[in-house]
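Lab notebook: predicted structure, single chain.

Context: the supervisor wants predicted structures on file for every construct in the current expression panel, including those that have not yet been purified. This is the next one on the list. No modifications to the sequence; it matches the entry in the shared construct table.
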Amino acid sequence: MDFLIFLLLLFSVCTCIGLLKLGLVGRKPGTAILPPGPQPLPIIGNILNLGDKVHLSSANLPKTYGPVMSLKLGSITAIVISSSETAKEVVHRNDEAFSGRTVPDAIRVRNYHQSSMQVDASRGIRQKIVQKMLNYVEECGLKGCAVDIGEAAFTVGLNLLSNIIFSCDLVHYDSNFSQEFKNTVWGVLGGVGRLNFGDYFPAFRFIDLQGRRREMKIHFDKLLDTFDGIICKSKSD
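Prediction complete. Output recorded below exactly as produced.
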């Protein structure tokens, strides 16, 4: 349903733009030659080639166009790498040249994309967090309880960051707050991962046709309220 709504919005808003641009914009001299890929349609490019199951399309298209292919997603050109050898060449040997990445429009709701933070966690913090997880797994084993691997991994990652930033554990194993916070984080990740008109046509980001920014604002506000509570508690202590 989300995909159909996206297509309707896409055609209704962009048809007029395509007509205006048709015949007015030619290929610029010296334009880089792109890898092979499916022939893009006017305006929408290869969005229909991906469909609503992007993971399956991304696995099937390389069988026709090779391990490195190009896709036109709206007004955005994307290069897709599907082989481990080529991926290693990009992320290992040419990591600096390819270190830039596109910021999803939904993340721009509070302008967090304009700043970045580099965190170098000490070995002691990592060892402490992992040891707590091992203790929890051992305790579950003694009780004969099943261990939710996803929940445990989420707690480890989150507490690693919270110890670096706030010097405390943000969540605890088998706590209601941990599940609530996880739902909020998954809400953020889901908002970033869903199909968004503004990602493919940046000129129309300000319209927020699908309400992605409004959804993300709700999730970000919940996160900020949680962080504000931690800061206030630290000040009172």
